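Severity: low
Component: inverse-folding endpoint
Summary: output formatting inconsistent between runs
Steps to reproduce: submit the following structure tokens with default settings.
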């Protein structure tokens, strides 16, 4: 079978890393609008870092048809952007004297097991943790009676510690996924080369096929 010149590409919407990066972007936009001064540079930097994670995964996947090198580069840019965002969330907590959860904190695994698909799902989880009385120093002891039970951007109580740590948990998972994705892409690139090598193989195979067809058969 002849090797295709343009390999299968795109399909990034099915990547777990893309889905999680998109969730992190949505969560970060809500978080920054609620807890970070919109006039500050930090607000824009956090939102742009989250967006960069999403966009570069998608762009790298789309470019992979003709350039595995570009795919690898852009996926690494996405990974670096999410690492930058992770540091911003940690700075937010540290500068306000709020707790950064330890690796063994059961809330981390609880959020992972929740398999949140939307920012609203994450907001519900934050509200659940608060209602269970484990909101940390950044939360109140109990929900006020007049507060809505539907966690939306305008009605969700202000729980910066829970919200920031939830984002950090999602970022940790996303970065781990991207680390494995980058390693797999590097292995493919090392084994198969890039577009130039593939072009050479395809042209060589085409010439070989044409030569075979043009060679007259001989009868005994």
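Observed output (run 2 of 3):
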């Amino acid at each position: 079978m002849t090797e295709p010149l343009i390999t299968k590409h795109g399909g990034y919407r099915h990547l777990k890393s893309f889905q999680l990066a998109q969730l992190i972007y949505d969560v970060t936009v809500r978080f920054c609008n609620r807890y970070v001064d919109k006039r500050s540079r930090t607000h824009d930097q956090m939102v742009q870092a989250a967006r960069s994670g999403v966009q570069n995964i998608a762009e790298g996947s789309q470019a992979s048809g003709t350039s595995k090198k570009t795919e690898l580069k852009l996926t690494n840019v996405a990974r670096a952007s999410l690492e930058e965002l992770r540091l911003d969330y940690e700075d937010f907590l540290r500068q306000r004297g709020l707790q950064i959860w330890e690796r063994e904190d059961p809330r981390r695994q609880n959020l992972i097991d929740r398999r949140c698909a939307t920012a609203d799902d994450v907001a519900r989880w934050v509200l659940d943790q608060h209602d269970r009385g484990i909101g940390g120093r950044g939360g109140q002891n109990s929900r006020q009676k007049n507060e809505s039970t539907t966690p939306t951007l305008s009605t969700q109580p202000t729980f910066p510690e829970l919200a920031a740590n939830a984002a950090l948990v999602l970022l940790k998972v996303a970065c781990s996924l991207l680390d494995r994705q980058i390693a797999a892409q590097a292995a493919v690139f090392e084994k198969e080369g890039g577009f130039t090598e593939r072009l050479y193989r395809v042209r060589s195979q085409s010439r070989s096929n044409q030569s075979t067809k043009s060679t007259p058969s001989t009868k005994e």
